[in-house]
Amino acid sequence: MKLYKQIVLLLLVATTVPTLHAVAQHKKNVEFYQIKVYHCRSNEQIDLTEQFLKADLLPALHQLKFSKIGVFKPIENDTAADKRIYIFIPSSSIENFISLDEKIAGQTHVAAYADAAHNNPPYQRIETIILKAFKDHPHFIVPSLTGTTGEKVYELRSYEGATEKFYRKKVHMFNEGNEIGIFTRLNFNAVFYAEVLAGSRMPNLMYMTSFNSMKEREEHWKAFGSDAEWKRISSLPEYQNTVSKADIILMHATAYSDL
């Protein structure tokens, strides 16, 4: 009898350990993202920062084995007081971001950028956001779009929660509530869905969808708003008041973007 119990115990260990290992591996496989936002006040600042991005930053990131880097500019940049450039950097490990700025420092060959005077900087501020992919969308996807660079629209959304509790409910809505599934079924061409781990506005989640044109975007959101499954989950008591502030940023990718 004692030998039988030992055999059963060994079998349980043999079957449980691989399962736990698989779960751990699944968690490890979730990607991390860094979004850098260059805030500029003038077109001259935008132009100089873009020279740096094209000549220095992206080549340095590629050399460090980062790939599929997205570079985007809001469609309203020309008339906006805060003109921005968004850099999306995906990685399999958050550790890759820890010393990233240090590794690319000193690789600036655009003298006007590197040696800019204190009273004539190439940007006003740089904002850095660190994100962790949702478990139900653990990897970013390069969208399959057919529109031209000037037509394609990338929509970045930021949803803030009033408290951590309400924020967690919105994250749950995307994953267990299957909001991601609705976006997938309606062909929103999502690039990523992620939690903000560190940023200037928290608690917060962000996600990016993409479209061949502005007209296509409007059609997709109209379909989303009238979708029966969306109406069902958005009316559930547990998902009420989960977003206290939503920002919608419509952008075009730059000609030198990997996405």
TrEMBL record:
<dbReference type="InterPro" id="IPR012577">
    <property type="entry name" value="NIPSNAP"/>
</dbReference>
<dbReference type="InterPro" id="IPR011008">
    <property type="entry name" value="Dimeric_a/b-barrel"/>
</dbReference>
<protein>
    <recommendedName>
        <fullName>NIPSNAP domain-containing protein</fullName>
    </recommendedName>
</protein>
<feature type="domain" description="NIPSNAP">
    <location>
        <begin position="154"/>
        <end position="257"/>
    </location>
</feature>
<dbReference type="Pfam" id="PF07978">
    <property type="entry name" value="NIPSNAP"/>
</dbReference>
